Amino acid sequence: MELRITNLSKTYPNGTRALRGVTLTIPNGMFGLLGPNGAGKSSLMRTIATLQEPDTGSIMLGDIDVLTQKDEVRKVLGYLPQEFGLYPGISAEVLLDYFAGLKGIRDAAERKLAVESLLQQTNLWAARKKAVGGYSGGMRQRFGIAVALLGAPQLIIVDEPTAGLDPTERNRFLDLLSEIGENVVVILSTHIVEDVTELCPNMAIIAGGEVVATGSPNEVIGEIRGKVYRTKTEKAALAQLKSEYEVISSKLVAGQPIVRVFSEVPINGQFQPAEATLEDVYFHRLARREQAVH
Ligand SMILES: Nc1ncnc2c1ncn2[C@@H]1O[C@H](COP(=O)(O)OP(=O)(O)OP(=O)(O)O)[C@@H](O)[C@H]1O
Q1: For residue range 143-184, what is the model confidence (pLDDT) as tens digits?
Q2: For residue 20, with 0-12 CB atoms within 10 Å meaning exposed, 13-18 middle and 19 or more buried, which class applies?
Q3: Measured between alpha carbons, how far is 30 from 217 in angstroms, rounded to an integer?
Q4: In angstroms, what is the span from residue 45 Cα to ligand 1's centroid?
């Protein structure tokens, strides 16, 4: 199954242009949608999940027209929104059984089997009788993905699932996502670059409602490979560097700024060539876009 998004635009009634001509082809497997806060990720996810209408454009999931055949989409969709409410006093086992019923799994034995297998898969089996209100952030997210996986969806959308998780829980969650399979489309929206580098064979960077780069992480990095340099500097020299070079990022390491810059032409002196990373592309693209807008 392939998801084809063509020329999707959306302006909210208050005038915010959340999506501007988004065109993307998303194949089976994990697809990373990387963008800063306010980039339009959630607007795009909600539109694909049939929860809101775009102003223009089309979305095809295989042969299904997502914008007109909403019921068909919902049958094959698993969606983990950025925020979701739960009934805090109810156990995961009972709640998941309830959601399975809503998803149309009517046969009780079949439902029991599905619920048990998802509780095992999401590592919540031992906590299945606990009220979900007492779950940690990571457990909540794993419960959310269990709900999203009910009914063996073909299209799985997870919106910023790792925000707020500690590293152990984050890894556990990402492992779970990558196990879900290569035969379904999984769209992972995130502002965490490593989530994409580590997991996604295909990706896009979105900023200001526009797709600013797309391809495999390797292809996306390709555009700046050999053009990234790094140097250690002093805090006092930072402003000067920023005025002379196209600074991608500066990070304090043990109190001292490490600066990465982009340059089309070789630079030396205090700089050393650095291996380009997805984070470099991300910051570079965002900075270029800022410049273009202002
Ligand atoms: N219902 C709405 N009405 C008006 N503006 C909205 C609405 N939803 C989102 N926006 C605005 O649209 C833009 C894109 O928001 P969106 O939530 O899609 O971005 P995002 O990339 O998911 O950001 P975040 O990571 O902060 O969730 C933002 O400027 C946001 O304030």
Answers
A1: 998 999 998 899 999 988 887 788 888 888 888 888 886 779
A2: middle
A3: 12
A4: 11
CATH number, position 154: 3.40.50.300
Nearest-CA residue for atom 4 of ligand 1? 12
Q: What is the ipTM of this complex?
A: 0.96
Is the same domain home to 200 and 250? Answer: no
Q: How many Å lie between the centroid of ligand 1 and the Cα of residue 60?
A: 23
Specify whether 173 is located in the same domain as 203: yes
Centroid of ligand 1 to alpha carbon of 58 (angstroms): 20
User: Measured between alpha carbons, how far is 244 from 242 in angstroms, rounded to an integer?
Assistant: 6
pLDDT digits over 196-248, tens only?
A: 988 899 999 999 999 999 999 999 999 999 999 999 998 888 889 999 999 99
Q: Whose CA is nearest to atom 29 of ligand 1?
A: 38
> Which domain, by its residues, includes 269?
222-293
**Beta pairing partners, 65:** 60
Does ligand 1 have an atom closer than 6 angstroms to the CB of 35? yes
Is 266 found in the same domain as 207? Answer: no
Question: How much distance in Å is there from the Cα of 121 to the middle of ligand 1?
Answer: 32
Largest CA distance in the chain: 71
Contact 33, 44 (CB under 8 A): yes
Last residue of a domain, one of 216, 248, 273: 216
